[in-house]
Amino acid sequence: MKRNTEDVILVDKVAKTYRTRKLEYTAIKDISIAVKRGEFVSVLGPSGSGKTTLMNLIGTLDRPAEGRILIDGVNTTSLNENELSILRNRKIGFVFQSYNLVPYLNAFENVTLPLMVDGIDTKENLERGRALLAEVGLGGKMGKKPNELSGGEQQRVAIVRALINEPPIILADEPTGNLDSKTSDAVMKVLVRMAKEHNTTIVMVTHEEDIAAYSDRSIYLKDGVVEREKRLRK
Ligand SMILES: Nc1ncnc2c1ncn2[C@@H]1O[C@H](COP(=O)(O)OP(=O)(O)OP(=O)(O)O)[C@@H](O)[C@H]1O
Ligand SMILES: [Mg+2]
User: Fold this and answer.
1) Which residue puts its alpha carbon closest to atom 18 of ligand 1?
2) Whole-number mean pLDDT of the chain?
3) How far apart are CA 156 and CA 91, in angstroms?
4) How far apart are CA 26 and CA 36, in angstroms?
5) 14 found inside a domain
6) How far apart are CA 234 and CA 232, in angstroms?
7) Closest among 187, 190, 142 to 166, alpha carbons compared
8) Is 213 helix (H, G, I), strand (E, B) or coil?
């Protein structure tokens, strides 16, 4: 696949095989996807079709068996672990199925942790954390620890945490998987607004067409290949 300079993410003829002691399973076969800056792509498909595998590859948490993954034109397949972790910290906000909240920090502290780590915990940025939590319906729960929050509430904390330092790329694996439709809509509105304001590139896995409707383009996976695509806007 030829690289277009606007492409923030380029998945180029990628394959991924899982090997256990007895079995080999090719979860992704020859997938090519280009995502432009500011584009919001949704990934749909049946359980086991390779969606999470694809997200792990794009997020450089896993390496492809074949093909290349380019992030902002950089071929990540040739970077070492240290270089990859720098790239991830600078460029990618993850909203994954396991939330990985820090158990002894409350919702507000979890959300603003990335600001502390980056040394940008200014009054204004901390205030933004408060405002975002309120926007996703957690205004009254900022002082609660993860074990005092429901699954859906923890999920929303994890989403705000991924957005807080405005990463150029957001990768979200079923970000609304545990949420009711009203809360899902609130979360999607925050995501879309942040993306518009900062020209963020988003790849989001969902199995709900209503949620995919917020994206610019839907990619449908089946048995580890792209079955079809649907452009929704732009
Ligand atoms: N670590 C692993 N070792 C072996 N096989 C795996 C591993 N992870 C995933 N697989 C297999 O790869 C296939 C794709 O898995 P993947 O998690 O990408 O699916 P998915 O589309 O995200 O499904 P879901 O909608 O259920 O989350 C599945 O058949 C799964 O059994
Ligand atoms: Mg999955």
Assistant:
1) 50
2) 92
3) 21
4) 27
5) no
6) 7
7) 190
8) coil
Whole-Å CA distances, 227 to 50, 89, 160, 204: 12, 32, 32, 17
| 23 CA: nearest ligand 1 atom | 4
Residue 1, pLDDT above cutoff 70: no
In a domain, 10, yes or no: no
pTM: 0.91
Tell me which residue has its CA closest to atom 19 in ligand 1. 48
> Which one of 18, 205, 227 would you pick to mutate in the ligand 1 pocket, going by the greatest count of ligand atoms within 8 A of its CB?
18
* Assigned token pair, 177: 């998987």
State in Å: Cα 17 to ligand 1 middle.
Answer: 10
pLDDT number for residue 132: 92
Instruction: Residue 190: give its domain's CATH number.
Output: 3.40.50.300
Check if 98 has its Cβ closer than 6 Å to any atom of ligand 1: no
The count of domains in the chain is 1
